[in-house]
Specification:
The protein is α/β, with parallel strands linked by helices and about 350 residues long. A hairpin with a 4-residue loop joins strand 10 and strand 11. About 35% of the residues are buried. Helices cover about 40% and strands about 15% of the residues. It has 2 domains: about 220 residues, Rossmann fold, CATH 3.40.50.10540; about 100 residues, formyl-coa transferase, domain 3, CATH 3.30.1540. Keywords: Transferase. It holds the Pfam family CoA_transf_3.
Length: about 350
């Protein structure tokens, strides 16, 4: 779908690589550019192997003039650049957007950062926990005693998704007017957009805080858990009837019913309860561990994650196109020589660049 779209990827860790993984899965030719001495900090971890599949890898030292020369040669032939340095780093390297346009005026350049390229927190370092704190999201994800850290990096993943979405919009716009674009993705802004839905009262705080019996988590006899999401009355009615407790139908929003239902669920194992609710529109699901989730028949059928090969597939199906799943993540710099030769560099030039610490 994105065949012939060339992407230069200067990102590390999770947000940027997840963004370019999406583009790669949609068919873009993604070239991961890393420094020769360390590379992506996530290398050697399962995370790296999951979200860098299908990409090529080139190592160049962007602090050296010869490295910049290679970069600009690639830039002139590319459609998209994605970077996740702290604001100002690209300018210090001489690679700011205004400079990039001198080599390729149609480039779609995307910066993914914690707080954005402007504002009072522009230069403040941070990680996912900081961004969800500032945005207010962590403040509503809490028990009565304390905020609870989510089990996944919401800002990082959200930033990657919105980065990819915005790049696709930029590419579409460029097809119409032929003009490039600079995209400033703030992970805090992304999470703020999630939080605002709750802030403006569109989500019931009581509902999402585990204070209602119809939208809650319950422990079973075997010390496992089930989730109940019977927000609509018809589903709550089905839930109560299947438990042989018609007397609870009028208590959907009665917080005092929670303890009573907890006691009921402790009478049987999770598997026994799932058998009871099988085929019933009651919105009861098991709460899985990661390993259990991968073994669920629905997950297996949709083939999002190949456990044997440890490969993540694009989580959306298209009727007329297939995504690029099934490839491995590249070793650091494994495509360097090939790419330089495609740019016209001879073997002796490449060896000299290695000796000079450029690649």
């Amino acid at each position: 779908m994105l065949k012939d779209v060339k992407v230069l990827d200067l990102t590390r860790l999770l947000p940027g690589p997840y963004c370019t993984w999406i583009l790669s899965e949609l068919g873009a030719d993604v070239l991961k550019i890393e420094d020769p001495w360390e590379g992506d900090y996530a290398r050697g971890t399962p995370l790296y192997d999951l979200i860098n599949t299908g990409k090529k890898s080139l190592t160049i030292n962007l602090k050296k003039d010869a490295g910049k020369k290679i970069f600009f040669e690639l830039m002139s032939k590319s459609d998209v650049l994605v970077e996740s340095f702290r604001p100002g780093v690209m300018d210090k390297l001489g690679l700011g957007y205004e400079t990039l346009k001198e080599y390729n005026e149609k480039i779609i350049s995307c910066s993914i950062s914690g707080y954005g390229q402007n504002g009072p927190y522009r230069d403040v370092p941070g990680h996912d926990i900081n961004y969800i704190s500032i945005s207010g999201l962590l403040g509503i994800n809490r028990t009565a005693e304390s905020p609870m850290i989510p089990g996944m990096p919401i800002a990082d993943i959200g930033g990657g998704v919105f980065g990819a979405l915005s790049i696709l919009a930029g590419l579409y716009k460029r097809k119409i007017d032929g003009i490039g674009e600079y995209i400033d993705v703030s992970m805090t802004d992304v999470v703020s957009s999630f939080f605002t839905i709750a802030y403006r009262g569109l989500i019931n705080e009581t509902l999402l805080s585990g204070l209602l019996p119809c939208y809650n988590v319950y422990k079973t006899k075997d010390a496992k858990f089930l989730s109940v999401g019977t927000v609509e009355a018809k589903f709550w009615n089905n839930f109560c009837r299947r438990m042989n407790r018609d007397d609870l139908i009028q208590r959907q929003y009665d917080t005092s019913a929670i303890e009573e239902i907890k006691g009921i669920f402790l009478e049987k194992t999770r598997e026994e309860w799932m058998e009871i609710f099988k085929g019933e529109d009651a919105m009861v699901t098991p709460i899985y561990s990661p390993d259990e989730a991968f073994d669920d028949p629905q997950t297996k059928y949709r083939k999002v994650f190949d456990r044997e090969r440890e490969i993540l597939s694009f989580p959306v199906e298209f009727s007329e196109n297939k995504t690029e799943g099934g490839k491995k993540a590249p070793k650091k710099g494994e495509d360097t020589s090939k790419i330089l030769k495609e740019l016209g560099y001879e073997e002796r030039n490449i060896e000299n660049l290695k000796e000079d610490g450029v690649i």
